[in-house]
Amino acid sequence: MAVAEKTPxxxxxxxxxxxxxxxxxxxxxxxxxxxxxxxxxxFLGPMAILVAFSLATQQGFGxxxxxFDTSQYHQIASPLYLSIFERTLVMAGLGTVLxxxxxxxxxxxxARYLSTYKMLALLLIVVPFWTSxxxxxxxxxxILDPHGYLAKDVGINxxxxxxxxxxxxxxxxxxxxxxxxxxxxxxxxxxxxxxxxDLGARPFTAFREITLRLTLxxxxxxxxxxxxxxxxxxIIPNILGGGNYEFVGNVIGDQFNQxxxxxxxxxxxxxxxxxxxxxxIAYILVAxxxxxxxx
Length: 295
What we know:
Number of strands: 2
Number of helices: 14
CATH topology of the largest domain: MetI-like fold
Strand order of the largest sheet: 1-2
Distance between the termini: 42 Å
Radius of gyration: 26 Å
Strand content: under 5%
Helix content: over 70%
Largest sheet: 2 strands, antiparallel
CATH class of the largest domain: Mainly Alpha
CATH superfamily of the largest domain: MetI-like
């Protein structure tokens, strides 16, 4: 009889557990108003202005006639500007690959082999962000100066070339890649590597099949964090390239500041954002698959 009385309680326990697990707190919708307002004022508003500028017609120096003129977008398809877009995307891609090649081993070494000085190493990675981006770029220009010690003593003279631009991209954006990869490596269970090696897997095979796969979301996130700002870079090509290796950002700046051709500058900006949206969509798809796999 006692057993029969306890049976309903035992059967009801999993149902109660499921109800507790499926419970999701609900928050009032008005809490999203500040973020939506910020998003509208500082993103949708400027985007609407750019679209209006890109469809306007240039009447004179700095004078616009608003309408629906798509000739600015046709001008982007010319070989000159297509080559600038190609150069920008290729250099941003190369900078991202170099950031991965340099940053992943550093993050791996910090997460796997450092214990006492791990926070100190992380602090050294973050410290450059405490200095202005412009100052860091000018400091690198001093290092690469043709009359500096690097050119005279070592024989490396790459200032005002694409190589200097590539070095500047990796130097300035490397911490943005290291931090998410380091976070992914910190959450990893290293006993999986020990189990794989105990079962006969070689170190590189264990790294490729376990470590790299588990940290792939961090690698993709870090790559996107450095690739997107690299494509819109203005300061590095201007200072380290000396105007000899312009990105799309430099052309956009020239159209707004010097040529006073806001319609074409706006069209270039929208074209760059559309090109970047392809990579953002690819990232969302990869992140969604990883989330479904993890669930």
